[in-house]
């Protein structure tokens, strides 16, 4: 049986590939469970500094929830098996303080839950043929895995409502213009550009990266003064770390810092 999510670790970068190209990388319960288990394992792997999430085949990042599984006429045993998988899943879209930065590498379509997966990542890099949409209202559904909340927080409200209320598709170029996508590149350059972003993150201190992500995630919904006055556990760790000394020392000594994550 083909693995629904492939895990490849190269140096400090782990690439998670949704591996259902015949279904446009739509996420069934098995794929969600595999992705959840991979994220759990990588969270505890100190050798991994950056995670890249992508889809196999080039046609789609992910077409979202596998509606065929959702609507299938299944036996009681099959339904219990699916329910048992879901009981073990912690979705990426529900992980609000994940310890590692995640880059979405998007080629082709990112639809519904696939778009919501990308929205849950820290950075989106898209090929120039990529497109994004939340078509749930056309199916009598809503994008409740974060789409209705994340999209209005990541682009202007009126633009977000236009896409949410119509299910219209957004091109990669439009997503870049709205600030949703960090870079748009030809498909032939996508791998190398994503590798460059990952390398730039890895060059930074890991405790600083974690503190920045935590400050943004927990401070973005607060008034500015309150957010700046708040205490952030990851930042408290960073402030007293060896790396907080190593960075300025390496700068003064005109050498590359040697990060220990401690």
Compile the SSE list and pairings:
Layout: E1 5-10, E2 13-18, H1 29-43, E3 50-55, E4 60-62, H2 67-71, H3 76-87, E5 102-106, E6 109-111, H4 113-119, E7 123-127, E8 131-133, H5 147-154, H6 157-166, E9 169-171, H7 172-177, E10 183-185, H8 190-202, H9 206-219, H10 224-229, H11 233-239, H12 242-252
Parallel strand pairs: 2-3, 3-5, 4-6, 5-7, 6-8, 7-10
Antiparallel strand pairs: 1-2, 8-9
Task: Walk me through the structure.
With 262 residues, the protein is an alpha/beta fold. The chain folds into two domains: 5-201, 2-enoyl-CoA Hydratase, Chain A, domain 1 (Alpha-Beta Complex); 205-252, Lyase 2-enoyl-coa Hydratase, Chain  A, domain 2 (Orthogonal Bundle), CATH 1.10.12. The chain is built from twelve helices and ten strands. Strands 1-2-3-5-7-10 form a six-stranded mixed sheet, with helices on both faces. The chain has a four-stranded mixed sheet with strand order 4-6-8-9. Strand 1 (5-10) and strand 2 (13-18) form a beta hairpin. The longest helix is centred in the first third of the chain and has 15 residues, at 29-43. It is globular and about 65 Å long. The termini are far apart. 36% of the residues are buried.
